[in-house]
Write the structure tokens for this entry.
Amino acid sequence: MSASDAIPAASAATPQVLLSHHLKALKLPTFLSEYAKLAQECAQEGVDHARYLLRLAELELISRERRMVERRIRAARFPAVKSFDTFDFAVIPALNKMLTLELARCEYAVRRENIVALGPSGVGKTHVALALALGLAACQRGFSVAFITASALVNQLMEARDERRLLRLQAQLAAAKLLIVDELGYVPFSQTGAELLFETFSQRYEKGSTVIASNLPFQEWTGVFGSERLTGALLDRFTHHVHILEMNGDSYRLKQSKSRRRKTAKAEDPAASEAIDPLTGEILKPEP
């Protein structure tokens, strides 16, 4: 089909039909959906043609950027999409709030620096690591992001090696501007798995940023990788340019759960001065 066949015949088509066709061909969906309404508004306000076109172009750019952010978020495969707006920093006073919010600006990603979130299970390090500021903020600022748990990453690397597509997977991981690896330390790795994970981190050294969330301090990572030599080499590379978020504190999820159960007990019996936690047997004092 020729270009002339694709365009409606000028004699039979109205200007609106032709304009719709051209805007679709140029991939300007916001222009198409907004030009008529905006033309009426600009006519009422006495806005000239240049400012009318400027407004349309701005709307198209805003819409295009929003769609690009949405695509990056989907590609990152976050298990959930959250932000620091829902995170209670007061629950974990050890966490450096100023540093954390500074990291959300993503300048570390420009400098290809790394982040480690350390703390016992449940204190919210997953909330931090999975871009519940960091990854989400990176997507919003134009960085490609990949999220995965450590065990899932090792499994994928081993499967790719067995199926002779390891180089392809490693290239995909290396291409991400930000790689977020959650739950490092929950499951120890085999020697092969540890070596493949080490290789993945090494390939990103000073080429891309990596965020690791772990429930173990650095000195206990040897138990995960099974080799002091491998662990030492990994830490030497990874901590060369690193920001550390210490998250020691009471379990964030446990506190949330207690708060919900306390409110439920109070709602069921407003006159009660205390309630018993059905899971732990603990006396729940009413909140003021």
User: Anything to note?
Assistant: DSSP finds 14 helices and seven strands in the chain. Confidence is low (pLDDT under 50) at residues 272-283. The chain has three domains: 3-70, 84-246, 252-284. Strands lie at 114-118, 145-149, 178-184, 209-214, 242-246, 275-276, 283-284.
